Amino acid sequence: xxxxxRNLQTAIKSKDExxxxxxxxxxxxxxxxxxxxxxxxxxxxxxxEEGATASPEKEEKKPLSFIKYRGAIKYLTDGxxxxxxxxxxIQFVEKQPGDDLVPIAFDMEWPFSFKTGPGKxxxxxxxxxxxxxxxxxxxxxxxxxxxxxxxxxxxxxRLHGVNIKNDFRKLGRDFPEIKADDLIVNGxxxxxxxxxxxxxxxxxxxxxxANYVVQKAIDKNKKVRMSxxxxxxxxxxxxxxxxxDVYIGQLIYxxxxxxxxxxxxxxxxxxxxxxxxxxxxxxxxxENFLNEKAEEAAI
Length: 299
Known about the structure:
Layout lengths: L3 H8 L10 H9 L11 H8 L22 E5 L2 H17 L6 E8 L2 E2 L3 E2 L4 E7 L2 E6 L8 H7 L4 E5 L2 H11 L5 H5 L3 E2 H9 L7 H9 L7 H4 L10 H39 L1 H9 L15
């Protein structure tokens, strides 16, 4: 197979094209450079249509270690305490330098019965700093504290999670003081963002996303996942389960943010060095510019 830089030269119409001999062109026609297909495979497409997560790469079946959380867990059930904690988080957000959105991992839990279906939203999990996760139990609240509502729709807060719009809508149905559309404005679905940054496809679950982005597994114990989230107090297993969901969400966000910046830098370097036409040609052959050396000729 020809060197990768040679492939780049044959993928783009350079100024040297006119100087090629007839024999050179005949050789190229007989031995064209191999190109990676950019078409979605049948398997990927069908999995996406069926609602399953499309495999972003050829997966290696190797065991991954379970994510462990050793930070603080602040578990609150009283409305006044939840309001005070929310005020503290608002202050944290507003102290962050610049005008950028501040990422906060968000998730929810509620009881589920196969006879009656989903119960009322019972728990909100929040992680703004990987060293501390907040678990707000809503069971005794008839109305969400105003400070919590203000935090969730704060103009500088970027709530993120997997399938997060559905959580917003669920919360809005159970607590009318929340308008789901207000939260969706700055909300970010980590699965959708991963597809943009890593140029993957399909839908994601949190555990699949953790596997792919940070190479960690989440212990999705069914007994805990399907437990009575509305009963006070939550036990240690429930608290750890709830905390890990937002902790790993924050880790995933940080890693995707790192990859997005690297990709943007590599693309800019490549365009500066080779031009826009070369960039388009390389992208057409499947380069995603996530590699540390992707700014070099990489097809």
